[in-house]
Model the fold of this input.
Amino acid sequence: MREDPFSFDIQGPNYIPSEYDNHIQRKLSSMKGQYLNQVAYNDMLYQDDVLLYQVFELKRQEVEGELLHGISIVHPGKVGDEYFMTKGHYHTVLETAEIYFILNGQGYIVMETPEGDSAVEELTKGKVLYVPPRWAHRSVNIDSEEDLVMFFVYPGNAGHDYGTIETQGFKKLVMEIDGKPEIIDNPRWTSPEGK
Ligand code: F6R
Ligand code: ZN
Done:
């Protein structure tokens, strides 16, 4: 890991950083229970364990004061009528924020707090999105052809809590209804605090 200042490039059309240390590939099989239409999920998985999204990370020490950063690329597609999306998570250290800069594509970021507050922001190329401390976050690609590409940066000590979202899901879902993206209430959502 480099201790001196450094720079790197992120260029289209593929937006893969010119330097990275980790390449994470998340496939359909890692999203069990997350999509509303479980029949569509199982049918699709039976055909092929498709690649939903990729993350390219630059390694930094996971300590306060460091900034973890990299690129996430959510590919276009749907499971049933629900768009390809990231798993989503809380930061283990809840009081840590995150910034996204959207480099390509269009979509939504779905967010919520442990208290059950919910927010959805539209993502378009060139937009900066600030996720405040305490807000779980998931990105969703609504384009039928383009990758949703985002640069992210967050504190080194944040950590990831995937378990809460795996158990509860998000309060809001982004589905295609009559050919358009719609934000709907997740019928299977239960509040983390049982509210
Ligand atoms: C890091 C962060 C993003 C995500 C990436 C993939 O805290 O929010 O870099 O890691 O968008 O999403 P997950 O981690 O939910 O699979
Ligand atoms: Zn995060």
Q: What stands out?
A: The chain has a mean pLDDT of 96. Residues 38-47 form the longest helix (10 residues). The radius of gyration is 16 Å. The CA atoms of residues 103 and 125 lie 5 Å apart.
